[in-house]
Amino acid sequence: MTKQVPLYIQGEFVAGEGDLIDVTNPANNQVIAQVASASNAQMQAAIANAKEAFQTWKETPVSERARLMMRYQALLKEHHDELAEILAQETGKTFEDAKGDVWRGIEVVEHAANIPSLMMGETVENVAREIDTYSYIQPLGVCAGITPFNFPAMIPLWMFPMAIACGNTFILKPSEQDPLTPMRLTELFEQAGAPKGVLQVVHGTKEQVDVLLTHEDIKAVSFVGSVPVGQYIYETGTRHMKRVQSFAGAKNHMVIMPDADKQQVINNLVGASVGAAGQRCMAISVAVFVGQAQEWIPELKEALAKVRPGIWNDKGASYGPVISPKAKERICNLIQQGVDAGAELLLDGRDCVVSESPEGNWVGPTLFTKVTPEMPIYQEEIFGPVLSCVEAASLEDAIALINASPFGNGTSIFTSSGGAARKFQHDIEVGQVGINIPIPVPLPFFSFTGWKGSFYGDQHAYGKQAVRFYTETKTITARWFSAEAATGPNFSIQMK
């Protein structure tokens, strides 16, 4: 019998009452589970219970909330490899890549365990004569998260631990393509001692998302996904008076200066472009070769040609399949559009076959040169193991090229010049910048700070900005009258 993935509502694992959705292994497209969407009644019950649970959870001392996160991170570490294996089988990621997905989520839970210091307000004594001002940081209420298929451990762990540590309750709607990992995260959260109602998990598609975006009791929504959906989430959520952080698409460039270490460039560029089958919002999809650095492209081709995809437990595989046949079809269509537009295809991964699992959604490493900004393969986020090479005459030209992009998620420069690095980091209009680091995803005590069309909202994920996103600040101005204090009406707003 096919495994049925439950919902988690009112502290109980229950069967969904809506349509069944197949969960497939991308390496062979066999059904490994089915997930039932939440009915409207179940959605309403989840929200109502989260609202009810908030009334007691918000009063839970912050030290107790921190200890919950300490217990949770300990359980996540204990079950690290188990989680990675579940994740690998439903996403197709290699085991090592899956372990990285889990670990980066654990790091955010560790950060959430520091919540007492992150929730501290501010105090100034004697802002005026015998008047003090101080601020408190208080939770919002019921928050929701909508997460994508490509990081089913890390991105849910970006969201609900920070929100709940801040004193909110949370409703998670994970991707219907790989719900097994989020449900195991939920089981461990319950095991850690989370009170009933603090976390709810619902499944479904647009119908269920729309309930979260429009329900008056949802105060904030976090989302990670594609550009069109990200725009819809932001527009719909804010129109219904919700706080929204919406992380959308990307087109990340890596600038290669002629003075860079060639072997470091090639090694890093190969991993950053085709690792995780290119299904990362921080993947490098455009390599900008400045001046004579373009002479290294033949060696880059040789290195990429040696990379092979494979099944999750193949220790020699560099990455796994893309998530679905539809995703493969889209990637292959974009590769053909690149050829039709006049780009030079040095490596073509469309006919990739993995003998151990020939029915999988395999795309081999793909390399283009002579790519220009007008081409679809430059403009669109391909989300596959496809690297486009462009040329720039100078660092200034490279910076202008990147700044003209509508996206601003991540970028990097490889150089041995401190001056070039300083100019790049100062002038570039991108939120996350790497210097001799290809994928500059910050650790959780900083925030994930995409710009421009890569992010819609004001406060970003994890770090201090997540605390601001999931809380409100209340400021109190107080005077306690002494016996000698003057009495009588005061018609001025000044405090003296």
From TrEMBL:
GO molecular function: methylmalonate-semialdehyde dehydrogenase (acylating, NAD) activity
Keyword presence, Cell membrane: no
Pfam families found in the cross-reference section: Aldedh
Domain spans labelled Aldehyde dehydrogenase: 14-476
GO terms of biological process kind: L-valine catabolic process; thymine catabolic process
EC number of the protein: 1.2.1.27
Keywords: Coiled coil, NAD, Oxidoreductase
InterPro entries for the chain: Ald_DH/histidinol_DH (IPR016161), Ald_DH_C (IPR016163), Ald_DH_CS_CYS (IPR016160), Ald_DH_N (IPR016162), Aldehyde_DH_dom (IPR015590), MeMal-semiAld_DH (IPR010061)
Record protein name field: methylmalonate-semialdehyde dehydrogenase (CoA acylating)
Organism: Allopseudospirillum japonicum
Record lineage: Bacteria, Pseudomonadati, Pseudomonadota, Gammaproteobacteria, Oceanospirillales
